[in-house]
Amino acid sequence: MIISKRIQTIAGHIAFADIADIGTDHGHLPIFAIQSGLATRAIAADINPGPLSHARRNAASAGITDIDFRLGGGLDVLQPGEAGTIVISGMGGRLLADILRAGRDVAASAGQLILSPHLDVPYLRRAVHGLGFNIFAEDMTEDDGKYYNILDIRAGAPREADYGGREYLLGRHLLRTRPPAFLGYCRMMAARYAKIADDIRKAAPLGSAGTAKLAETERLRDAHNEV
């Protein structure tokens, strides 16, 4: 079983030995976490029976018996306090935020939430703060040409000062720590927004909507260029 760099990086942030992996897919995270000594027991949940069956087979092949497999969506599969670390990854930030809202009591009972959305990350940062949680740390990794954010949210973390717009866009902790993947991501996005801006200009005359879109695209280009 090949463990992706994304999964390994997420696992490296686990702070508690009892974990729950929501949307476990093929079970790579809990299997790797137990094999590596990062967790002693795990709950692996998925809304689809096919991937969950695959996860069971992977665990059996690896000789792992300390995983409780559960069929279900979101945090409905957990009772408050069942897991010290809850991992939710492999989905968009808006869906992830909806899961947190629907299962806020369960989420608040965990010592740590590890959230790894593949899009709408600024939206998720705002939603996390809107739910009263604090972002303890944030990381980014590059895996097979794609970039993945990893938000580490801890119970009892010090109250954060209010974020500014740039911090919601790019991540306060990433702006401070500047990991290599983050710098690569910013270069990629700056180039992408520059090309979009050029394409908008070529569509002149722009009109009010086009002018507004160009201004927003240039703002995003500049924000990533300034990192």
Span of the ends, CA to CA = 37 Å
Over the alpha carbons, how many angstroms does the gyration radius reach? 19 Å
What is the count of β-strands?
Answer: 7
- Share of residues in helices: 40-55%
Form type: elongated
Question: Number of helical segments?
Answer: 10
Order of helix and strand elements from N to C terminus: HEHEHEEHHEHEEHHHH
Q: Regarding quaternary structure, how should these chains be classified?
A: single chain
Mean of all residue-level pLDDT scores: 95
Strand-residue proportion: 15-25%
List low-confidence stretches: none
Strand order of the largest sheet: 3-2-1-4-5-7-6
* Class inferred from helices and paired strands: alpha/beta
- Report the sheet with the most strands, covering strand number, pairing sense and barrel closure: 7 strands, mixed
Describe this structure in words.
There is one protein chain. This protein is 48% helix and 21% strand. The longest helix has 23 residues. The radius of gyration is 19 Å and the shape is elongated. The chain has a seven-stranded mixed beta sheet, with helices on both faces. The protein is α/β, with parallel strands linked by helices and 227 residues long. Strand 1, helix 2 and strand 2 form a beta-alpha-beta unit. Helix 4 runs parallel beside helix 6 and helix 9 packs antiparallel against helix 10.
Q: What are the defining features of this structure?
A:
227 residues; alpha/beta; seven-stranded mixed sheet; 10 helices; 7 strands; 48% helix
